[in-house]
Design goal:
Chain lengths: ~160, ~280
Amino acid sequence: MTKKTIIQKKQESYLMASLTSVSLILSNVALPWTENPSSMPNYFIALIVIFVVLKKANMSLSKLFIIGLLVDLFIGQILGQYAFIFISIYALNFLIVKILTIKTETQILSLSSFLILISFFVLWATSQSHDIIIPLGLLFHQFILTLFILLIIKFTINTFTTK
Amino acid sequence: MAQGKNSSNLKLFNRDTFPLFYFLILFILCLIIMGLDYRYKISNEIKAEISIINTPINFLINLPATLLLQVKSNFVTKALLEEKIKMLEQNVYHLSINIQENKLLKSENKLLRNKLKIHKDFNIVGVNAEIILPNVKNGYRVITINKGINDKIENSAPVINNNGLVGQIINTTKEYSEIKPLTSIKFAVPAIKDSGKENVILYGNGNGELEIPLFPESSKLKVNDIFMTSGIDKIYPKGINIGKVIAIEPSKFPKFNNILIQPFSQPTSYSQITVLKIKK
């Protein structure tokens, strides 16, 4: 296994910081083609899932916890909600990678999709709106949009970081 | 030894140990934080304090609209302005007549109330503000206004405009406040038909309308009937226009209809609203 150089680590950290800023701005803007705001992609879940799956920016539990708390402060409904989701993503990814070998693009995408769905479930379970039933159509729409954003972020990571 | 090194290089299996203890601590910490925040609303206080960071973000989001408006206003011709002034003068004239009529009605109303021994305070006191931009925050539609804690705006205060009810304040920072529009999902307001009958609760459906999910089929209600606040919740003052019935559809349950109501107020950017004071 090749160890990452200091320059690579710096690159990834800078990219993470800039993508977080972009996500923060985009989370506050409605897309022109979506009438219902609930069908907006979840930029932060897409960002964290792909960074955790690709093992970029040296993501650790404490880092994710702090990022989660910051996200909660800016766009969250309740403090600790996103921190909870992010550490759950980390734990799940860790356990899956321990059991299965994730190497190909399809495997990465499948794992990312699974983690996004689990995140949405945790988001729904801890939501302050106390919805009992998940609107499946809306969930599917949001899932597709988030997955699309994840692919864009993945492409950005591959373009701006050296392997 | 060499074989061991090679298998490690292949990285077929993840041999790292999972930080279970650390994870459990953070997991419990998250639950405690969520519980504390739900109980004491800590995040709202912190959000109010960190509004200094939110201000540039809001500025950035509003920048294209602000620039467009400024450029547009620079190209307004003199003739157009004169026409607008004339129109406003006419409006002022009509409104002054209405004021006279209202004064008479008010005094008559007072007399009647005294005779019927009905004591009700209809004074609407509030702070005027301007909508900066109706936007969406992480999937939730909110309206941002240019007044905050510094202007004595409080959380959960009702918001109205000249057309009717707009929503409720859900978050206040020093310079900005956020309104949950009345058409948002989970928004509920007690209402009454303008004829004084049919006390109902209207719910926002998230698609720009309000609805009454299960309305008895036997009740007399027709399209274009108007609903206004009933004031029984003691949050929204009585008599504020909400909207009119646009559709009466059969629901899944027999003998019940689903009523759709279109709100009168359609708040847009740079329009005026009034944040009412909470009666304590």
